[in-house]
From TrEMBL:
This is Riboflavin biosynthesis protein RibD. Converts 2,5-diamino-6-(ribosylamino)-4(3h)-pyrimidinone 5'-phosphate into 5-amino-6-(ribosylamino)-2,4(1h,3h)-pyrimidinedione 5'-phosphate. PROSITE patterns: CYT_DCMP_DEAMINASES_1, CYT_DCMP_DEAMINASES_2. The active site is at E46 (proton donor). Zn(2+) binds at H44, C72, C81. It comes from the Bacteria. InterPro entries: APOBEC/CMP_deaminase_Zn-bd (IPR016192), CMP_dCMP_dom (IPR002125), Cytidine_deaminase-like (IPR016193), DHFR-like_dom_sf (IPR024072), Eubact_RibD (IPR004794), RibD_C (IPR011549), RibDG_C (IPR002734), Riboflavin_Biosynth_HTPR (IPR050765). Substrate binds at S165, W167, R181, L201, R204, E292. Pfam families: dCMP_cyt_deam_1, RibD_C.
Length: 366
């Protein structure tokens, strides 16, 4: 199953709105087929593994299928994977976790059991749930998984008082940041970052240039200029601007002409509502969002309880209290209201430190 999970991870950032699934077929102690969800969500992992088994071993009859997510049980652009496994005459199916999608939700397992196939569930379940947390969030919460990425000094500063920030962390940490982009469906910044840095927000690691995610800007007043790199490159890489409910028609038309999708959402006091923005992304199929914005967007998302994971890169340097903080204030007045996370990993990233965190369930901020 861990081999299947490794295969599934290959699809992260490329399979939305579908989950990233892996499948390994084993017979007589030998692997006879492997598969993972292909870009765009089709073909599914089981279909890929069965095709390889037919090519290499003449089929999967009598085999055990290890699948990281319950096989689908509904007709879409392709027939159900549960039916494909039945028709392939596999003897046993081992599933890491069930699919909460109402079109599946146990139906795939029932189809398998009804024809006498042995079904085992819950193997490496925690790892499988973590892998596809974004897909599960979209189905059950109506929003994507949100990961906040920060590159700061030891004292939590992301720039000097004059705004100088390039580069606080070293080349290894920056490369790891690009790898994070490749594993997410969308990368999001606020309009402040878009105006100050004029970023491209692409993945520029050798060999992964085609893995650039959808670029999203939270821009309440639609201030992104048509000359910005994000706008001029919209014909090449999907670019969305999430703005207030009544965007200026002329500004919207200028961006739309370049290929930018302008997405109006609810807001208050001239600001886009963070929850409404995330719901809008989920409605378009996004399951995983990497946030690389500045202090304001970080504070807004933390204050709304929308940050699920942190990827924090720390340089062994100090700027002091006059530097710009990584997170703007978000209304915490008592320790009981702080956003709490648990550390899941610590690694050396060249001369810097890379720390990963998950939000503690039930410990969302205010």
């Amino acid at each position: 199953m861990r081999a299947a999970l490794t295969l599934a991870a290959r699809g992260l950032g490329r399979t939305w709105p579908n989950p990233a699934v892996g499948c390994v077929l084993v017979r007589d102690g030998a692997v006879i087929g492997r598969g993972w969800t292909q870009p765009g969500g089709r073909p599914h992992a089981e279909t890929e593994a069965l095709a390889r088994a037919r090519s290499l071993s003449g089929g999967a009859e009598g085999a055990t299928a290890y699948v990281t997510l319950e096989p689908c049980n509904h007709y879409g652009r392709t027939p159900p994977c549960a039916l494909a496994l039945v028709e392939a005459k596999v003897a046993r199916v081992v599933v890491a976790c069930q699919d909460p999608d109402p079109r599946v939700a146990g139906g795939g397992l029932t189809r398998l059991r009804d024809v006498g196939i042995e079904v085992v569930t819950g193997v490496c379940e925690a790892e499988a749930l973590a892998l596809n947390e974004g897909f599960f969030n979209r189905i059950t919460l109506g929003r994507p998984l949100v990961t906040l990425k920060v590159a700061s000094t030891l004292d939590g500063r992301i720039a000097t008082a004059t705004g100088e920030s390039q580069w606080i962390t070293g080349p290894t940490a920056r490369a790891w940041g690009h790898r994070l982009r490749a594993g997410h469906d969308a990368i999001l910044v606020g309009i402040g970052t878009a105006l100050a840095d004029d970023p491209e927000l692409t993945c520029r690691l050798p060999g992964l240039e085609d893995r650039s995610p959808v670029r999203v800007v939270l821009d309440s007043s639609l201030r992104l200029p048509p000359t910005a790199k994000l706008a001029t490159g919209a014909g090449r890489i999907p670019t969305w601007v999430v703005t207030g409910p009544s965007p200026d028609p002329a500004r919207a038309a200028a961006l739309t002409a370049l290929g930018v999708e302008v997405i109006p959402v609810a807001g208050a006091n001239g600001q886009v509502d963070p929850a409404a923005a995330m719901a809008a992304l989920a409605s378009r199929g996004i399951t995983r969002v990497l946030v690389e914005g500045g202090a304001s967007i970080a504070g807004a998302l933390l204050g709304a309880g929308l940050v699920d994971r942190l990827e924090w890169f720390r340089a062994a340097s100090l700027i002091g209290g006059d530097g710009l903080p990584a997170v703007a204030g978000f209304g915490v007045e008592a320790l009981a209201a702080v956003a709490r996370f648990e550390r899941t990993a610590v690694r050396s990233a060249g001369v810097d430190l890379a720390e990963s965190y998950r939000r503690i369930p039930g410990k969302a901020s205010v």
